[in-house]
């Protein structure tokens, strides 16, 4: 393991992100194995949330059952490894509210949770399986939000 990957592993342990990931893996009964670069692969994640094929908590990368062999999707593995560095940059657990602020911004600007989320953009949208959606003006986004809460909106859907 390279020094930088060992440093990431230590920092994500000290900042409590990796211990949280290991607790989540144990509670959700994931199969754990060592991955590349000092990462830990948590396979067969089954709980409904988050809605993602893969996601990262510290140095632990969770994979849904349809990813039988995560090493066979190197672009996704690299995307999730970048998220692991983001936990270091955010000093661990503050990653969560910052990430969700990025989701909110992206939803406002594009109607999509990833397209303008800085965390997903820096991790690589395509590598994470996301398609970039066009941005809309803030005025149009706010009008869309205002219209969706209007009582005459009867289509049963809430546009984002």
Order of helices and strands: HHEEEEHHHH
Please give the alpha-carbon distance between the first and last residues: 43 Å
Kindly report the spatial arrangement of strands forming the biggest sheet: 1-2-4-3
Integer-rounded radius of gyration: 18 Å
Number of strands: 4
Keywords summarizing the entry:
DUF4157 domain-containing protein; 45% helix; alpha+beta; 6 helices; 160 residues; 2 domains; four-stranded mixed beta sheet; transmembrane helix; transmembrane; disordered C terminus
Please provide a written account of the structure.
- Keywords: Membrane, Transmembrane, Transmembrane helix.
- This is DUF4157 domain-containing protein.
- This protein has helices spanning 3-14, 17-27, 74-89, 95-110, 118-123, 138-148; strands at 31-34, 40-43, 54-57, 60-63.
- By secondary structure, the chain is of the alpha+beta class.
- It is built from 6 helices and 4 strands, in the order ααββββαααα.
- It has a 4-stranded mixed β-sheet with strand order 1-2-4-3.
- The model is unreliable at 150-160 (pLDDT under 50).
- Strand 1 and strand 2 form a beta hairpin.
- It has 2 domains: 3-91, no CATH class; 94-160, no CATH class.
């Amino acid at each position: 393991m390279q020094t930088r990957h060992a440093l990431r592993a230590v920092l994500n342990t000290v900042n409590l992100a990796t211990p949280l990931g290991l607790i989540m893996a144990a509670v959700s009964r994931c199969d754990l194995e060592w991955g590349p670069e000092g990462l830990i692969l948590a396979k067969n994640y089954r709980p409904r949330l988050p809605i993602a094929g893969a996601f990262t908590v510290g140095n632990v990368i969770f994979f849904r059952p349809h990813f039988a062999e995560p090493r066979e999707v190197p672009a996704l593995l690299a995307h999730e490894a970048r998220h692991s560095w983001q936990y270091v940059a955010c000093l661990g657990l503050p990653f969560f509210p910052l990430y969700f602020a990025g989701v909110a911004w992206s939803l406002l600007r594009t109607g999509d949770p990833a397209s303008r989320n800085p965390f997903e953009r820096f991790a690589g949208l395509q590598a994470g399986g996301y398609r970039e959606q066009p941005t809309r003006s803030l005025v149009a986004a706010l009008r869309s939000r205002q219209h969706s809460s209007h009582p005459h909106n009867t289509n049963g859907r809430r546009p984002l």
